[in-house]
Amino acid sequence: MRKVLSGGNAPQGHWVGDGFPVRSLFSHMGGANENTPFLMLDYAGPEEFQPTTRPRGVGVHPHKGFETVTIVYQGEVEHGDSTGRGGVIREGDVQWMTAAKGILHKEFHSDDFTRKGGMLEMVQLWVNLPAADKSAEAGYQAITDADIPSVDLAEGAGRVRVIAGSFGGKAGPARTFTAMEVWDTRLKAGKTVHFAPEEGHNVIVVVLDGKVTLNGSHRLEGAAQARLSRDGGGFTVEAETDAKLLILAGAPIDEPVAAYGPFVMNTEAEIRQAITDFNSGCFGQL
Description:
The protein is mainly beta. Helices cover 6% and strands 52% of the residues. It is built from two helices and 26 strands. A hairpin with a 3-residue loop joins strand 2 (14-16) and strand 3 (20-27). The longest helix is centred in the last third of the chain and has 12 residues, at 268-279.
């Protein structure tokens, strides 16, 4: 059985732009690389927005050296970037954006959501890239809800949507640079489920909503997270209430991490070069 190494509830939230009230469930910005290959996870909402005429969100900004994964649970987010890609991320959809050698992008509530208002709930996960891939071409994967296979758990315990990796014989649609599993999970109250990610992978259990117990002893109430050991086999999740979880597992990228705002590289010299490249217009135009 994997050991629960650490965990805790989400801290007080903050706003990203004027459209995303977020709580950072974990972050690399404290200097640790313990969640590798995952860097950061922000949980936005649930928050109700009133109808308006001007889309709320975040204007044009850069990223370099990693990937962002946006999962929308409620509401709609519109994305555009310097590769010329973009579109509306609707309920159940996932946007997997590869910043790699550098990208500019913007994120706003969609025009329709802006006009009608409603509940917004989403997560944004940052995934590191190994040094060998930090200069790869920037890219964008638009993954719709219909693209994501869903696996029903035994005895009516819930279901798992397989965004990346595999589960229950089904493979997720996301293309990743390193091996990982991203499982969007719903559990029914009173049910216990055994999960068995790849041995040697770091595992993070994120509880967005509900109350669960890990391995029969470690209780989490959303929004909260726990980090598990890299080995030891599987782990169990017992749902005290209906629960919404995101289970993340990935092969560690055991390389130095140098981070400065939207740039994640391996050395301070590379960070300085990233800033120079951005200021020189090397990330394209938007």
